[in-house]
Amino acid sequence: MAAETQTPPICFGIIGCADIARKVSRAISLAPNAVISAVASRSIEKASLFAKANKFPPEAKIYGSYEALLDDPDIDAVYLPLPTSLHVKWAVVVAQKKKHLLMEKPVALNVSEFDVIAKACEENGVQFMDGTMWVHNLRTAKMREFLSDSERFGQLRAMHSCFSFAGDADFLKNDIRVKPDLDGLGALGDAGWYCVRSILWANDYELPKTVVALHGPVLNEAGVVLSCGASLHWDDGRLATFFCSFLSNLTMDITAIGTKGTLNLHDFIIPFQDKEASFIVNSKCFFNELVTSWVPIPSEHTVTTDIPQEVCMVREFSRLVGDVKNGSKPESKWPIISRKTQLILDTVKMSIEKGFVPIEIKS
Amino acid sequence: MAAETQTPPICFGIIGCADIARKVSRAISLAPNAVISAVASRSIEKASLFAKANKFPPEAKIYGSYEALLDDPDIDAVYLPLPTSLHVKWAVVVAQKKKHLLMEKPVALNVSEFDVIAKACEENGVQFMDGTMWVHNLRTAKMREFLSDSERFGQLRAMHSCFSFAGDADFLKNDIRVKPDLDGLGALGDAGWYCVRSILWANDYELPKTVVALHGPVLNEAGVVLSCGASLHWDDGRLATFFCSFLSNLTMDITAIGTKGTLNLHDFIIPFQDKEASFIVNSKCFFNELVTSWVPIPSEHTVTTDIPQEVCMVREFSRLVGDVKNGSKPESKWPIISRKTQLILDTVKMSIEKGFVPIEIKS
């Protein structure tokens, strides 16, 4: 333990000044085992403004090119929030430069691209993790305890997940997430990523056997998905459905139904409040004698979350990077989970393209 | 108004001593405009025991045959909780005997059967209503206000509804709802009825254009559905999904997502508590500047429900019966809604039987 406390913090370089990088750079500052060492943009002015606006430490370096940052020997790890179409190119360079990689989701335009990224990380011995924050929330561990409890929850049977938000006219016209050459998976890659991850999470990351897109997805003129859904099926009869959209009000629901219990929450990606997060547990609830009310009533469990989920993510990633620096192998769990998520997105897209036919998942 | 207060209460006869009849007979007792006049079972002993166990008034008549009750000129209205396969036979006799009809759901084994019932009611000038209680809850009217609010909710875009409960070994072997010759629609007709009704309700009872069953329904050995789901599609891109099951923990969710708001509740069929019922309203919620929490947080609206929903149902039905006795025509809204619900159930079943193909709804 003494050795661990002596490990210096992991030095992060940030490549690209996307909106989401504001939150993650704050998280890097707040994590006890990480520091911001540099930021790069194709425009040095933009990088400089970003560093100022986000109160980067004065010693943080400002680069006018991604390459320059990647050549900096002081950088341990890179946070990469670039548009998805640029992931494979830059992620491979990051890995080749022996930098560990924390990358925004969706991780790639398709699984083949992601495999190139994962291979580069593996060959260069660097840690990979995607930027799905909610799985690092303390609440998520508490929800996992419930789902794993054979007495309170039993076996998972069905699940529904939903993430939608109403993009305004500007978003629907100009955001990178509606552009085929930038984030070509649209709402499926952005909002759907979270739904699919939540379904995998609840299923202990067991891939479904079959995926079927729901009829009636909404595409924009360029063919990018603005709204869609799918059902996922496992051999033992387990079922999951999800719905993701840029066209309807902000909603982020999980309902996971087991043989003995049900989990509900309405803020699984971004918790309602900063300092606490809740979920609803229904365990073997039934009705009173005349079936006019429930016995017992489902209960709300609240978890104190002094450390924001994005800080938990950076802390965990940095811990793993520290382990690698101390001689451990990179943790393979994270790229495996990213790949499974991407694989399901690909399959949903294929099912849409083929006319909503069931597609078997080959893992 | 003076005339109305002088209208004598509607006299109910109950045909069949199903469990659900306990709750409805209590509701008839509690409704200000209804009284229990008689109960009939094929066994007079069973009818007598039922009357005693449910504290029927001493003047309530006990009949050992359905026909005898239906010949009683004092009876205005009949509550019919028989197995679905018997509905068409007895409902037609009820109507021919000029009794108004409050009937349990599902209303029939299929729409053709229901059309026979509806026609008999129409030809005999009697009021029809099905026994879906939750639509009469005071909360439901409050939720309707929210869904109708173009500023707070906007236009409905997507909806998910779920009703499941875990039938025990005895239920799954012996309950009438798993028997092909009694309630042949199984979980679809029982639990799915509520999901479909909630979807129609949220869509102002506009039928979808297309219905597609989800893959992977679970059937028992006799071919009765124990678990299934479907997606429903409207021409303007609106989407609804539902899941119903006898095989997973008690869950009854509605999520209705509009362009500006979202409605959530977890007890739409049977409210958690007797005296109050709640729902969650999210209207134009979004995130704080750094996207770490919501602004504002969705709010819970609680409605005081001193009158149980089943009493509201009996009261409304009796009010309509009173109107008919005073010369009005029967309210056609209720059989129309029942028919639409049944039509969608039929269509889901057909989609399952045809291999999960989309089926167009012909209204």
Short description:
Two copies of one chain form a homodimer. Chain A is built from eleven helices and 18 strands.
Plain-language structure description:
The structure is a homodimer of 363-residue chains. Chain A has 363 residues and is an alpha/beta fold. Chain A is 34% helix and 27% strand. Chain A has 11 helices and 18 strands. In chain A, strands 7, 8, 9, 10, 11, 12, 13, 14, 17 and 18 form a 10-stranded mixed β-sheet that branches. A 6-stranded parallel β-sheet of chain A has the order 3-2-1-4-5-6, sandwiched between helices. In chain A, strand 2, helix 3 (44-53) and strand 3 (61-63) form a beta-alpha-beta unit. In chain A, helix 6 packs antiparallel against helix 11 and helix 9 packs across helix 11. The longest helix of chain A is centred in the C-terminal third of the chain and has 21 residues, at 333-353. The radius of gyration of chain A is 21 Å and the shape is globular. The interface between A and B is large, with 66 and 67 residues. Chains A, B: Residues 12-129 form the Gfo/Idh/MocA-like oxidoreductase N-terminal domain. Chains A, B: InterPro entries: Gfo/Idh/MocA-like_OxRdtase_N, GFO_IDH_MocA-like_dom, NAD(P)-bd_dom_sf. Chains A, B: It holds the Pfam family GFO_IDH_MocA_C3. Chains A, B: GO terms for molecular function: nucleotide binding. Chains A, B: This is Gfo/Idh/MocA-like oxidoreductase N-terminal domain-containing protein.
